[in-house]
């Protein structure tokens, strides 16, 4: 079983490559691979810095990353009532990923558990995500459910492959 750890800026290039491989399997790329990898790795490196509201956990074995989960902390407006002032957003549709060879081995569950433990420690009020049909069971096992008090306005095209 791979170890689960927080990603660091040094992991950005490998994470960008994984994102490229996953996304081009679903859709034709709209920019050259080298341009995307450079742009994505720079974005990820900045978001993986300690000051960022982003966290990424990776599943690593023998020095190779086999899976990852991205989470963004979202600040709430300050509240004088006893209410926690952060939400967590797990970018599920394309950024919770386990390479096919390790799927079903508990790697995804371990990544979710690490993110939720972090959220509890940080005083996060609630964690949201948009699951794929294949991932619903995983998230239900970790306490996620479909809320009755959340609305969504989809402003762009969404690809849920």
**Overall average pLDDT:** 89
Beta-strand share of residues: 15-25%
**Helix content range of the residues, please?**
25-40%
Number of strands: 6
Global morphology: globular
What are the segments in which pLDDT stays under 50 over at least 5 consecutive residues? none
**Helical run tally:** 5
Give the biggest sheet: 6 strands, mixed
Radius of gyration: 16 Å
Distance between the termini: 27 Å
Which sequence of SSEs, written as H and E, runs from N to C?
A: EHHEEEHEHEH
Structural class from helices and strands? alpha+beta
Short précis:
This protein is an alpha+beta fold and 161 residues long. Helices cover 33% and strands 22% of the residues. A hairpin with a 2-residue loop joins strand 2 and strand 3 (64-75).
Keywords:
6 strands; alpha+beta; 33% helix; 161 residues; 5 helices; 6-stranded mixed beta sheet
3D structure, described in words:
- The chain is of the alpha+beta class.
- It has helices at residues 12-24, 33-47, 92-95, 107-121, 136-141; strands spanning 3-6, 54-61, 64-75, 86-90, 96-98, 126-128.
- Strands 1, 2, 3, 4, 5 and 6 form a six-stranded mixed beta sheet that branches.
- Strand 2 and strand 3 form a beta hairpin.
- Helix 1 (12-24) packs across helix 2.
- The longest helix is centred in the first third of the chain and has 15 residues, at 33-47.
- The chain starts with a strand and ends in a 20-residue tail after the last helix.
- The mean pLDDT is 89.
């Amino acid at each position: 079983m791979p170890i689960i750890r927080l990603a660091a800026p040094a992991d950005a290039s490998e994470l960008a490559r994984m994102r490229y491989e996953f996304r081009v399997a679903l859709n034709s790329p709209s920019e050259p691979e080298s341009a995307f990898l450079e742009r994505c790795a720079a974005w990820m490196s900045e978001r993986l810095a300690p000051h960022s509201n982003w966290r990424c956990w990776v599943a690593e074995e023998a020095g190779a990353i086999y899976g990852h989960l991205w989470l963004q902390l979202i600040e709430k407006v300050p509240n004088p009532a006893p209410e926690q002032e952060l939400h967590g957003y797990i970018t599920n549709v394309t950024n919770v990923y386990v390479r096919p060879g390790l799927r079903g081995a508990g790697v995804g569950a371990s990544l979710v558990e690490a993110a939720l433990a972090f959220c509890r420690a940080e005083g996060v009020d609630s964690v949201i995500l948009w699951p794929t049909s294949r991932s619903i069971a995983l998230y239900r096992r970790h306490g996620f459910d479909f809320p009755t008090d959340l609305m969504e306005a989809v402003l762009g095209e969404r690809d849920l492959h």
